[in-house]
Specification:
The chain folds into five domains: about 160 residues, 2-Layer Sandwich (Beta-Lactamase), CATH 3.30.450.40; about 100 residues, PAS domain (Beta-Lactamase, 2-Layer Sandwich); about 60 residues; about 130 residues; about 170 residues, Alpha-Beta Plaits (2-Layer Sandwich), CATH 3.30.70. The strands form four sheets. A six-stranded antiparallel sheet has the order 3-2-1-6-5-4, sandwiched between helices. A five-stranded antiparallel sheet has the order 8-7-11-10-9, with helices on both faces. A five-stranded mixed sheet has the order 13-14-12-17-18, with helices on both faces. Helices cover about 55% and strands about 15% of the residues. The protein is α+β, with helices and mostly antiparallel strands. It contains 20 helices and 18 strands. A hairpin with a 2-residue loop joins strand 13 and strand 14. Helix 2 packs antiparallel against helix 5 and helix 2 runs antiparallel to helix 14.
Length: about 700
């Protein structure tokens, strides 16, 4: 492992700064054992999915060594490492926070780095630091683009989620450095979850959406007095007190409708001895990725003691109050009463009421915490409601503008009506002028006045028309603002759906890797057991036989000792490739059970001869594909144990026992041969027990 950087060797790095705990950070990095190792499917899967989710050409898992950046996984970048001095990732590790660079060519911190000025021409950067279990930043998960661009908040959230997955892989590598699979850490967490479920201080029950009990922990059984088997025969509504059930059903229907994700109620549950226990129920719905309800999780808190204590406190307070009242009535009215004793009784009463108030405060505090949790759950919905409120506000302004326009048009119509009236009067006046010349001067004056009013009215009409045009222009601007807002909302929704799809694809990828052997890329022992159980079930129903081939590499320990474990791993990979290419059809299955032990399941038209033909074909291919090593060609062989299912087999383990016995016979007879099994041995039973036990292997 390299030591800490000397000032003379890396003085330029001081421009960015070296963390004060750089030596400890390098120790944590080298302890992982990842530097200069071959590509890993798990890390490559993260970078591939993250690059697709963020739509960037370059995605890296970068480890910051003493004087270099080494890329454990890379998408879209040809080089395997680059200088640490002046690099984005070194800056992010030193700052211990997310780093965003819009245009590196214009940023004096990074303009001279090889990835920026070289043929890669990196311009924009977004990096999330990756930490070990002892919280040392050893690298980053980073996205790069060859064009200047902005990364939005949604893209930062998506990359952060992928960084958490990469960090889990780093931690798993650290915990399981001597293990055959990085999934050991995940299985430990699964066991921790099971232990937490069983040993929780509160009762936990999983039920179907109809109330049937699926799983129950020890605390719930002790609380209600039933065994787990007895509770699984009951339903949750059958345990509830009839008076408490309607409210629970009402809240549960709201959760099913999607109005709420969880709720809390106080209820009485019937115990096995037929008395009712007072409990607080916290009920949440487990939903699938498409928000469909799957099952419910019920957390039970026994509050019988608190309820009993509260009831007894109230009774004691009532008795004490009655005693004081009787005592006061028995005393003479002269005022010579024993005041000190009365004050002592009142103090006790106050103390009792204080305890009762304290109990009520605790209940209120618990309800407050529940309300706080529900508030956080609805915070996201509040943001969406806020956006919709802004849209509604814009629509309201548009409606107001349209109303103003309608009012202006009404005023214009009114003015036009007045103009028509004025013109009618003018015609009337002209008729009167013809009737009498004597009134000509008077009528002319009136005519002039009318004409003046007409001019004033006409001016108002012109002003109203100009105001109408201005309001129509404002209406067009409001409509354009509304259109832009709607497009922004649609873009945000598209980004959310894309991010959700990327996360779902990542989860599906990790689930597939949990059933695959990481070295040979064959199904692992867990997948083999599951497929064998399915085959045994099909045998009982359809009576169609299936076959099993077990094979072990001969002298595999000697190969590891003489050629090294890396050559041993290549032998296992070569055997896995041979098995996958020699299967008869897609229904057959080859799997690695652990170490140098492999298995082949054959289905369809199968008998002893065809099963032997498959084994012989694999045996022959082994001899044709020696492995090239630094010490020359390495030829390796294997021993085969075969067995065919029988109609009276109780399960698949019986078939496995016969095949394992045949494998032992082949090894005892000199290895590198095929043997057919028809009996059971003690060693086969032991191997079967090991196969059925939980394993930490991939």
């Amino acid at each position: 492992m390299n030591g800490a950087p000397e000032p003379a060797e890396d003085a330029a790095l001081q421009e960015v700064g070296v963390p004060v705990d750089e030596a400890e950070r390098l120790v944590s990095l080298h302890r992982l054992g990842l530097l200069d190792t071959p590509p890993t499917p798990a890390f490559d899967g993260i970078t591939r999915l993250a690059a697709a989710a963020l739509r960037v050409p370059v995605m890296l898992v970068s480890l910051v060594d003493q004087n270099r950046l080494w890329f454990k996984s890379r998408i879209g970048l040809g080089v395997r490492e680059s200088p640490r001095h002046g690099s984005f990732c070194a800056y992010a590790v030193h700052q211990r926070q997310t780093l965003f660079v819009r245009d590196a060519a214009a940023d004096p911190r990074f303009a001279n780095h090889a990835l920026v000025g070289g043929p890669q021409r990196i311009r924009s950067y977004l990096g999330i630091p990756l930490y070990t279990r002892d919280r040392q930043p050893v690298g980053t998960l980073c996205a790069m683009d060859t064009e200047a661009r902005d990364f939005g908040d949604l893209e930062v959230v998506v990359l952060t989620e992928f960084a958490k997955i990469a960090e889990e892989l780093l931690c798993s590598q650290e915990v399981a450095a001597k293990s055959d699979s990085v999934l050991q850490y995940a299985m430990e967490r699964e066991k921790l979850f099971r232990d937490t479920f069983e040993l929780a201080a509160v009762g936990i029950v999983h039920t179907t959406l109809h109330g049937a009990i699926l799983r129950v922990n020890q605390r719930a059984c002790l609380m209600l007095g039933y065994t787990p088997a007895e509770l699984r025969e009951l339903s949750f509504p059958a345990l509830a007190h009839p008076d408490d059930l309607p409210r629970n059903i009402r809240e549960f229907k709201r959760a099913l409708a999607g109005e709420i994700d969880s709720y809390r109620v106080e209820q009485r549950l019937r115990c096995k001895d037929q008395h009712y226990a007072s409990v607080n129920l916290s009920i949440s719905l487990r939903r699938t990725g498409s928000r469909q309800s799957d099952y419910s999780i019920v957390v039970i808190e026994d509050i019988s003691a608190e309820k009993q204590a509260g009831t007894e406190a109230l009774k004691a307070a009532a008795l004490e109050g009655q005693r004081l009242k009787d005592q006061d009535e028995a005393l003479p009215p002269s005022g010579e009463r024993p005041a000190p004793a009365s004050r002592e009784a009142q103090a006790k009463l106050a103390e009792t009421e204080g305890k009762l108030t304290e109990t009520q405060d605790k209940l209120i505090e618990a309800q407050g915490k529940l309300t706080e949790t529900q508030a956080k759950l609805t915070e996201t919905q509040g943001k969406l409601t806020e956006t919709q409120g802004k849209l509604t506000e814009a629509q309201g302004k548009l409606t107001e503008t349209q109303g103003n326009l309608t009012g202006t048009q009404d005023k214009l119509t009114e003015a036009q009506s007045k103009l028509n009236q004025t013109e009618a009067r003018l015609v009337e006046r002209e008729g009167e002028l013809k009737e009498t010349q004597a009134k000509l001067t008077e009528e002319q004056g009136r005519l002039a006045e009318t004409q003046a009013k007409f001019a004033e009215t006409h001016g108002k009409l012109v002003d109203a028309q100009e105001a109408l045009l201005a309001q129509q222009a404002s209406l067009g601007e409001t409509r354009e603002t509304l259109r832009v807002t709607q497009e922004a909302l649609r873009d945000a929704e598209d980004q959310r759906r894309e991010a959700q799809a990327a996360l779902q694809a990542s989860n599906a990828k990790l689930a597939a890797e949990s059933s695959t052997d990481y070295l040979t890329v064959l199904p692992n022992r867990r997948s083999f057991s599951r497929r064998s159980e399915q085959a045994a079930s099909a045998l009982r129903q359809s009576r169609k036989p299936y076959g099993l081939i077990l094979l072990d590499l001969d002298n595999f320990k000697r190969i590891n000792e003489e050629y090294g474990h890396e050559v041993g791993d290549e032998v296992l990979r070569s055997l896995g490739h041979i098995l996958s290419t020699q299967l008869r059809n897609s229904s057959d299955m080859a799997a690695r059970l652990g170490g140098d032990e492999f298995a082949v399941l054959c289905f369809g038209d199968i008998n002893e001869q065809t099963l032997h033909d498959v084994a012989e074909r694999i045996h022959s291919q082994l001899g044709k594909e020696p492995l090239a090593t630094p010490k020359g060609l390495l030829k390796f062989t294997a021993s085969f144990g075969l067995a065919l299912s029988m109609p009276d087999d109780p399960d698949w383990k019986t078939l496995y026992t016969r095949a394992d016995a045949a494998l032992r016979e082949a090894k005892a007879a000199g290895k590198d041969r095929i043997s057919f099994g028809r009996s059971q041995s003690k060693s086969a039973t032991a191997r079967l027990r090991a196969l059925s036990a939980p394993s930490s292997a991939g």
